């Protein structure tokens, strides 16, 4: 059993199934995106016991008793400071990678409320965006860091 | 960085999501009902839209509905893949002319149906330039109908009333009626003739040209509420992955699925028939594993034992193919453009400078790999949900593949997690249709993994460009011979074309605007052994890079400033007309040449503007240098200055990028900024890393480890966009694609200026590493 966005869930399927496919296919929580399947792009980033992880690289057999937060559960009203900053800066283009970007940024700011420019770049370097929204991703995170 | 107010309207996406699943009729409280045939109003100036299949539709009965509570629903009929044109900017044009309050506007995504909505083929950077006129007319017509309804209600002449901010006002008495109260009466009126409808003066624009509204899906994107093709959910949905032939044109000789069927969750293993080339966007064929979840399907596929017959393309090899292209541009080819006598001028030139450039295949690598879902509904209609750049066209292909009439299909358009040309080809939707059919119409989603995406793309073409420039005694370029060889995307449609089509010729090659008396352009033979597609900006990517690099090379050879020499090559302000010089009918991005001529004044202007704003010639830290490039593409004019910083070991970063952009009247400047920022990131990716290579007919890359794209820690973060401001009288032109081509040559020119190393092979890779 595990908790997903505060809700108790039980799973008795294939223990090698990545958390990402459980979220997307079994629970229908498609906010967590499939991008590469091998932890190279960060589109599937969720929080596992508060840490940002690539849910495509976490097996269901390893999440027993743990707590998962996805983009759908980051804030009940979509008002997490990262989500608000993303909207203020008009970050997304196609939007596909943005849930992963937001989850990664939220984890960074939780641990490091006022990251430097290099800390932002390091923390976000595992999250790919093909449209190329990096300037605004960086600016949006910096705006929160400077407000902190 | 552009800031604008946060716009959070969750309701909008509820409507659109419902529309996405059930079609337009599900919005509820529809007041304006579609009448047929829809009005196709006359337009003030001609565009290429009228030559596109099904042209344009401007009828508000098709695009606009108003509910009794005043909520205005506007249909988005084109594909939204990230530039905001389809779901934000075009509806914004309607809303502006309608005098609608944007907070009361909802977006409804149309299904694929070009007879009803007009052309839906979302590529070629056409959405705004083809649809600003019909969408303005659409909004203005709806406003006129609301005014008519109010005038009738009050018993006054229509000249006494005026629509303003979601209500109609009677000027004499100050009486007002909201749009919701008028909608029912207005809906009964016929669409007024275009000449009776007054479009706004641009001074009265509320949204056009302002950049004051966010994209409509912003809230949902930031909360995980969007539905892309990969995200479609249906009751009883099954999930499929396909083992496709590793070589294009290959087929399954035999397969053994006994281990696969033992994987828990696997439901069925079936084949998709191979296709013979050329066959448009037909699936490649292969063995499909259908399962209760995607993971089981992926696991199952790994256990398949397949013996492939690789077919005719099994020896395709990027190294030997490159050598072949090189040999073809070192001898005379098919004449494509001729001005004066370049052969004679080269023979008598004081000096001839020659250079060859090579750029390999690229994969689109949209962050959303292709995916599609299909089922047969209880009423016998085939339904497909997919991220399609051309949903109307795909509908025809889906119907044909299933052997039914288009009317027996509904193609629901999802959001696209990136397109860049890949999702112009609907092979994945056809796979879904075939697999659902194999499951007696049960809902099946085909998921492409990243490896599937990288290895089974319609690739950006591979090109060799060879230049020979003849210089006279005064250092003037008197002759220019440009030979090019690249496989053509026409190979998807006709057998063995070998030479580029008019469309490919027109993208940054035979449209070259240079002020040179003798020009000769020849294409070398290039057979296609893979599926060639179109990648954002298409052949402009290569020709823009090679041409703008070579011009800088000439400047260096002559000891001239690269920017001044570029301006000299562009020459004085004039209209350049290649139509009499080309051997294949000139293609000006599908536009009437008179509407969108090649205007060197505008190309000069962006070049001078970007040089000024970037501080061309400014003092720079050690290891830093600037490079410049200018290019016309999709009838827009763009120039870029890249600042590069090269360390002693050859590691380089891009501290700053300046781009001057002339896209005519700029409907949504905020999204033009975002497109330009993104183009710097994508431009850097293709210049630094971009290469898909083949060996034994097989793609050698598979994921983001060996097909790398730019990450944030190496991305240009300071990207300044300088939009050339125009009024509505300068027709809007392309945005999404034209900002890309100048980046790579500006970068390579900067690298040369910093290191003395001229890049003639892309990607740059380790070439400047020390």
Structure description:
The complex is a heterodimer of chains A (148) and B (770). By secondary structure, chain A is α+β, with helices and mostly antiparallel strands. Chain A has five helices and five strands, in the order E-E-H-E-E-E-H-H-H-H. Chain A has helices at 19-26, 81-88, 98-111, 117-124, 134-147, and strands at 2-4, 7-9, 45-48, 51-54, 67-69. In chain A, helix 2 crosses helix 5 (134-147). Chain B is of the alpha+beta class and 770 residues long. In chain B, the strands form eight sheets. A seven-stranded mixed sheet of chain B has the order 9-10-7-17-14-15-16, sandwiched between helices. Chain B has a five-stranded mixed sheet with strand order 12-20-19-18-13, sandwiched between helices. A four-stranded mixed sheet of chain B has the order 23-24-25-28.
Across the major sheet of chain A, the strand order is 2-1-5-3-4
Name the structural class of chain A. alpha+beta
Gyration radius from CA atoms of chain B, angstroms: 27 Å
| Spatial strand sequence of the major β-sheet of chain B | 9-10-7-17-14-15-16
Weakly predicted, low-confidence segments of chain A: none
Biggest sheet record of chain B: 7 strands, mixed
Number of helices in the DSSP assignment of chain B? 19
The tally of beta strands of chain A, per DSSP, is 5
Q: Oligomeric form of this entry?
A: heterodimer
Decide which structural class fits the backbone of chain B: alpha+beta
Q: What's the story with the biggest beta sheet of chain A?
A: 5 strands, mixed
Number of helices of chain A: 5
- Taking Cα atoms only, what radius of gyration of chain A do you get, to the nearest Å? 15 Å
Low-confidence stretches of chain B: 1-36
Work out the strand percent of chain B.
15-25%
Helix content of chain A: 25-40%
Order of helices and strands of chain A: EEHEEEHHHH
């Amino acid at each position: 059993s595990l908790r997903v966005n505060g809700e108790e869930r039980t799973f008795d399927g294939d223990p090698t199934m990545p958390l990402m496919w459980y979220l997307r296919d079994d629970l229908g929580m498609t906010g967590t995106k499939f991008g590469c399947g091998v932890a190279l792009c960060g589109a599937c980033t969720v929080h596992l016991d508060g840490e940002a992880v690539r849910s495509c690289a976490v097996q269901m057999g390893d999440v027993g008793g743990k707590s998962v937060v996805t983009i759908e559960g980051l804030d009940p009203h979509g008002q997490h400071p990262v989500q608000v900053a993303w909207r203020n800066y008009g970050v997304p283009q196609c939007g596909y990678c943005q849930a992963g970007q937001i989850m990664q940024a939220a984890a960074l700011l939780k641990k490091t409320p006022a990251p430097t420019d290099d800390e932002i770049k390091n923390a976000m370097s595992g999250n790919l965006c093909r449209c190329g929204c990096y300037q605004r991703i960086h600016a949006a995170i910096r705006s929160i860091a400077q407000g902190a | 960085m552009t800031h604008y107010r946060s716009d959070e309207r969750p309701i909008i996406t509820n409507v659109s999501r419902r529309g996405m699943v059930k079609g337009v009729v599900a919005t509820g409280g529809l007041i304006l009902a579609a009448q047929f045939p829809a009005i196709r109003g006359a337009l003030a100036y001609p565009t290429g839209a009228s030559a596109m299949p099904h042209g344009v539709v401007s009828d508000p009965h098709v695009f606009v509905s108003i509910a009794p509570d005043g909520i205005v629903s506007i249909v988005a009929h084109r594909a939204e893949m990230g530039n905001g044109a389809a779901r934000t900017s075009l509806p914004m044009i309607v809303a502006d002319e309608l005098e609608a309050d944007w907070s009361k506007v909802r977006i409804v995504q149309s299904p694929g149906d070009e007879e009803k909505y007009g052309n839906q083929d979302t590529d070629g950077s056409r959405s705004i330039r083809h649809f600003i006129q019909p969408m303005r007319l659409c909004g203005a017509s709806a406003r006129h109908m609301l005014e008519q309804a109010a005038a009738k209600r009050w018993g006054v002449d229509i000249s006494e009333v005026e629509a303003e901010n979601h209500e109609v006002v009677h000027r004499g008495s100050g009486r007002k009626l909201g749009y919701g109260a008028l909608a029912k009466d207005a809906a009964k009126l016929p669409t007024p003739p275009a000449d009776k409808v007054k479009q706004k003066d641009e001074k009265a624009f509320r949204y056009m040209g302002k950049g004051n509204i966010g994209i409509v899906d912003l809230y949902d994107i930031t909360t995980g509420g969007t539905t892309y093709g990969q995200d479609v959910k249906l009751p009883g949905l099954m999930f499929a992955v396909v083992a496709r032939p590793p070589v294009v044109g290959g087929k399954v000789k035999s397969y053994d699925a006994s281990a696969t069927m033992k994987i828990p969750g696997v439901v069925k293993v079936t084949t998709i028939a191979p296709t013979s080339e050329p066959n448009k966007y037909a699936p490649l064929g292969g063995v499909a594993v259908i399962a209760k979840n995607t993971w089981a399907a992926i696991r199952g596929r790994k256990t398949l034992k397949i013996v492939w017959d690789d077919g005719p393309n099994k020896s395709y090899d990027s190294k030997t193919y490159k050598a072949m292209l090189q040999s073809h541009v070192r001898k005379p080819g098919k004449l494509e453009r001729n001005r004066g006598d370049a052969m004679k001028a080269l023979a008598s030139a004081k000096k001839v400078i020659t250079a060859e450039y090579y750029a390999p295949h690229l994969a689109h690598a949209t962050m959303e790999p292709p995916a599609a879902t299909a089922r047969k509904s209880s009423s016998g209609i085939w339904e497909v949900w997919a991220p399609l750049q051309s949903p109307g066209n795909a509908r025809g292909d889906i119907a044909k593949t299933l052997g039914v009439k288009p009317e027996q299909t509904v193609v629901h358009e999802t959001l696209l997690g990136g397109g860049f040309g890949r999702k112009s080809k609907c092979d994945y939707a056809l796979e879904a249709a075939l697999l659902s059919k194999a499951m007696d119409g049960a809902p099946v989603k085909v998921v492409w993994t990243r490896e599937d995406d990288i290895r089974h793309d319609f690739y950006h073409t591979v090109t060799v460009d060879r230049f020979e420039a003849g210089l006279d005694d005064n250092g003037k370029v008197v002759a220019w011979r440009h030979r090019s060889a690249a496989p053509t995307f026409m190979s998807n449609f006709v057998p063995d074309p070998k030479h580029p089509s008019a469309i490919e010729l027109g993208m940054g090659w035979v449209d070259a605007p240079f002020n040179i008396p003798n020009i000769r352009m020849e294409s070398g033979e290039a057979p296609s052994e893979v599926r060639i597609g179109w990648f954002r900006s298409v052949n402009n990517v290569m020709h823009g890079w090679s041409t703008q690099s070579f011009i800088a090379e000439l400047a260096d050879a002559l000891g001239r400033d690269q920017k001044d020499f570029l301006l000299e090559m562009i020459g004085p302000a004039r209209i350049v007309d290649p139509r009499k010089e080309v051997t294949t009918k000139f293609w000006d991005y599908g536009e009437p040449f008179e509407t969108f001529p090649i205007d060197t004044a505008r190309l000069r202007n962006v070049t001078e503007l970007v040089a000024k704003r970037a501080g061309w010639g400014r003092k720079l830290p050690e290891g830093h240098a600037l490079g410049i490039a200018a290019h016309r593409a999709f009838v827009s004019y763009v120039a870029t200055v890249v600042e590069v910083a090269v360390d002693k070991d050859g590691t380089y970063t891009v501290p700053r990028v300046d781009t001057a952009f002339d896209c005519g009247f700029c409907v949504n400047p905020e999204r033009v900024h975002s497109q330009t920022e993104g183009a710097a990131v994508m431009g850097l990716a293709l210049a630094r890393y971009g290469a898909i290579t083949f060996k034994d007919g097989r793609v050698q890359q598979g994921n983001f480890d060996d097909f790398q794209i730019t990450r944030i820690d190496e991305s240009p973060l300071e990207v300044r966009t300088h939009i050339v401001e125009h009024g509505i009288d300068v027709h809007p032109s392309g945005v999404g694609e034209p900002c890309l081509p100048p980046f790579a040559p500006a970068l390579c020119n900067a690298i040369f200026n910093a290191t003395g190393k001229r890049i003639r092979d892309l990607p740059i890779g380790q070439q400047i590493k020390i």
